[in-house]
């Protein structure tokens, strides 16, 4: 399952703020939006493409994304169809072999990748929005609102996500990956909210934020045009980590048999392989691919994230 | 100090309250009737079914107003009564959980502590040392992105089924009874190695990467540069960096507990290890709601207590928290 261990906020941010919120920010925000931005963009691309971690991570993720998008089109069988001989090792007809029910493992794999990307995007997206909204509000408003939101964050933070998902999914029949993703999104935002809150705290006392506030902008405008852009790199990295985390949690849930049962996902593949004693039969082609798919996507995202960290934060770049 | 602890205690009590309320509310407000589910599995005769239904509704306390059910739930909980298992009916949920608990703890506690210790050491060594970094970093990322159950399956396949070094499933040999004998201890240890390794390796990757990144930040900090420019040996500079880098890692430990417990649940299932995870799977498959609820409460209470202990430890480890709390700043 997804571990906040690596997603733990303190490992990424500190230096991010130091550079991002630094003196480069003009007091007059409109002026800053004009000329310097293109230069900044190309600088980002320049360093990003020269960072092997970013390129490698992105490359791996894109390969799996392509497999998820186009794989189902070239797969010659439906993922759940009992089409062929049972328990066959990989061959030219069945690229990844078949299950002990005669299903095409390749078809299951590429459809499972789709489910993984869906759960990651929706679950990670919801957690990202919740984390950002709670974090910005708590950090910017402060006072009683901060106390209440902080309490809420701490409560959700301490309750183990999988435990709460087990009990919810045990009672509620989860019929689609979208529902599963929403459940994951609703429970995995707290660390993100904490991190955004801490960053907002340090930014809100800056002069340019005061100027924006004095010029009569609403809270929402100040947050969206002054505070959020100054931690955009951080928000991007947060989304990547939440995306990967959601995929790992989803795989654990499916493995426990709490996801949608009449469908295909990488976690469910592992569940089926395990329950059908693929291990004892030695059908490695059945139980290896789902794990490799998850490691590829999630590991690729994490490595990409370190690369991004180095791109945004010059002090980390290898010399 | 006291104010800090008081605040923490309030948060933990509130969390416990919310968790218990969720635990109570979910079965009652979800579609489907637990009593009906139980009866449909028993396939009793229609006449008997009616009587049984009344009996179970009464036994589970569904026949009183909802607010009273809530109060009764708390009252029973505070007496340590988590209800009875539907799957093994007369056995109480607490009894089942307490029977499984030692096995889960035997996996979890060493996996958490050893991975934290080893991961931090290796991560600190790897930071800013090219050769080591280029091996530790990729391995760490692969490990931390690995689903524990899959790693368990692969370990079982390689080391148990192919090489035959370790047994595939269970916590001890079939021919043994749990007891304080040498034979049992040896068998237990053999069965313990693979599930432990699956949990340890995944957590290890996370700690190593986290520590490696933190050390790099710390080595870039002004105090490190100052120390180095004074001519302090690298070893000393790294020692100071390590101490500072360890603090966020300890916060991370508190955050990671839930994930490690979740990992233990799925790994136990892979190895049919008779702990809470295997109990959970059985409860899910048999729709044994009271058992699921009990396990949920148990896990949450455990995680809360562990978090609280880490919070207290943090005060002793980081002098700054203490000074801040005593109004020094």
What is the secondary structure topology, with strand pairs?
The complex is a heterodimer of chains A (319) and B (329).
Chain A: H1 4-7, H2 13-20, H3 29-33, H4 36-49, H5 52-74, H6 105-141, H7 143-158, H8 161-171, H9 177-187, H10 190-204, H11 207-214, H12 219-230, H13 232-255, H14 266-275, H15 278-281, H16 284-312
Chain B: H1 2-29, H2 34-42, H3 46-60, H4 66-78, H5 93-126, H6 130-144, H7 148-162, H8 182-220, H9 222-229, H10 234-270, H11 276-285, H12 289-317, H13 319-325
Helix pairs in contact in B: 1-12, 5-6, 5-8, 5-10, 5-12, 6-8, 7-8, 7-10, 8-10, 10-11, 10-12, 11-12, 12-13
Question: In CATH terms, what is the architecture of chain A?
Answer: Orthogonal Bundle
Series of secondary-structure elements of chain A, N-terminal to C-terminal: HHHHHHHHHHHHHHHH
Number of helices of chain A: 16
Total beta-strand segments of chain B = 0
Question: CA-to-CA gap between the ends of chain B?
Answer: 13 Å
Percent strand of chain B equals under 5%
Largest sheet of chain B: none
At CATH level 3, the topology of the largest domain in chain B is: MetI-like fold
CATH fold-level assignment of chain A? MetI-like fold
User: Overall mean pLDDT score of chain A?
Assistant: 77
Order of helices and strands of chain B: HHHHHHHHHHHHH
- Please tell me what the overall shape of chain A is: globular
Notes on the protein architecture:
The complex is a heterodimer of chains A (319) and B (329). Chain A is built from 16 helices and no strands. Chain A is mostly helical and 319 residues long. Chain A has a single domain, classed as MetI-like fold (Orthogonal Bundle). Chain A is globular and about 75 Å long. The N terminus of chain A is likely disordered. The mean pLDDT of chain B is 81. Chain B folds into two domains: 63 residues, no CATH class; 229 residues, MetI-like (MetI-like fold). By secondary structure, chain B is mainly alpha-helical. The longest helix of chain B has 39 residues. Chain B contains 13 helices and no strands. The radius of gyration of chain B is 25 Å and the shape is globular. The chains are: A mainly alpha (319), B mainly alpha (329).
């Amino acid at each position: 399952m997804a571990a906040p261990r690596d997603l733990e906020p303190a490992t990424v941010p500190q230096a991010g703020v130091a550079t991002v919120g630094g003196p480069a920010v003009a007091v007059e925000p409109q002026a800053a939006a004009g000329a310097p931005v293109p230069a900044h963009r190309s600088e980002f691309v320049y360093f990003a493409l020269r960072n092997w971690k970013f390129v490698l991570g992105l490359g791996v993720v894109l390969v799996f994304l392509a497999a998820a998008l186009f794989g189902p089109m070239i797969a010659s069988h439906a993922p759940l169809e009992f089409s062929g001989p049972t328990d066959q090792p990989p061959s030219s007809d069945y690229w990844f072999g078949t299950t002990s029910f005669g299903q095409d493992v390749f078809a299951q794999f590429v459809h499972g990748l789709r489910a993984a990307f869906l759960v990651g995007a929706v679950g990670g997206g919801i957690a990202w929005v919740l984390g950002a909204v709670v974090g910005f509000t708590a950090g910017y408003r402060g006072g009683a609102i901060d106390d209440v939101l902080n309490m809420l964050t701490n409560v959700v933070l301490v309750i183990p996500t999988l435990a709460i998902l087990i009990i919810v999914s045990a009672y509620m029949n989860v019929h689609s990956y979208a529902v599963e993703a929403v459940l994951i999104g609703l429970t995995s935002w707290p660390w993100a909210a904490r991190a955004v809150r801490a960053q907002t705290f340090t930014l809100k006392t800056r002069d340019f934020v005061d100027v924006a506030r004095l010029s009569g902008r609403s809270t929402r405008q100040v947050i969206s045009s002054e505070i959020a852009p100054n931690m955009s790199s951080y928000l991007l990295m947060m989304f990547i980590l939440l995306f990967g985390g959601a995929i790992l949690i989803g795989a654990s849930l499916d493995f426990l048999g709490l996801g949608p049962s009449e469908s295909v996902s990488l976690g469910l593949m592992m569940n089926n392989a395990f329950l059908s004693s693929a291990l004892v039969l030695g059908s490695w082609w059945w139980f290896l691919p789902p794990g490799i798919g998850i490691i590829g996507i999630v590991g690729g995202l994490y490595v990409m994230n370190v690369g991004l960290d180095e791109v945004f934060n010059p002090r980390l770049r290898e010399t | 100090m006291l104010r800090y602890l008081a605040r923490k205690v309030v948060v933990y009590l509130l969390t416990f309250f919310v968790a218990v309320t969720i635990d109570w509310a979910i079965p009652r407000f979800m579609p489907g009737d637990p009593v009906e589910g139980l009866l449909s599995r028993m396939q009793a005769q229609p006449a008997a079914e009616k009587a049984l239904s009344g009996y179970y509704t009464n036994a589970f306390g569904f026949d009183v107003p909802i607010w009273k059910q809530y109060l009764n739930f708390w009252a029973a909980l505070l007496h340590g009564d988590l209800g009875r298992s539907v799957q093994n009916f007369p056995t109480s949920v607490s009894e089942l959980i307490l029977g499984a608990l030692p096995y889960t703890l035997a996996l979890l506690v060493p996996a958490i502590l050893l991975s934290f210790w080893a991961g931090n050491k290796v991560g600190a060594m790897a930071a800013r040392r090219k050769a080591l970094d280029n091996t530790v970093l990729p391995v760490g990322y692969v490990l931390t992105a690995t689903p524990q159950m899959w790693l368990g399956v692969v370990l079982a396949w390689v080391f148990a089924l192919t090489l035959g070094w370790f047994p595939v499933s269970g916590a001890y040999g079939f021919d043994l009874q749990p007891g304080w004998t040498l034979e049992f201890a040896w068998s237990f240890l053999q069965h313990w190695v693979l599930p432990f390794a699956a949990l340890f390796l995944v957590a290890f990757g996370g700690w190593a990467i986290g520590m490696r990144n933190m050390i790099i930040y710390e080595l870039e900090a002004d105090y490190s540069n100052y120390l180095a420019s004074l001519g302090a040996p690298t070893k000393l500079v790294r020692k100071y960096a390590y101490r500072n880098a360890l603090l966020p890692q300890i916060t991370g430990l508190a955050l990671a507990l839930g994930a490690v417990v979740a990992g233990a649940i799925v790994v136990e299932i892979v190895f049919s290890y008779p702990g809470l995870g295997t109990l959970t799977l059985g409860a899910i498959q048999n729709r044994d709601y009271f058992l699921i609820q009990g396990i949920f409460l148990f896990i949450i209470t455990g995680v809360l207590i562990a978090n609280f202990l880490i919070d207290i430890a943090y005060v002793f480890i980081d002098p700054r928290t203490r000074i801040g709390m005593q109004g020094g700043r």
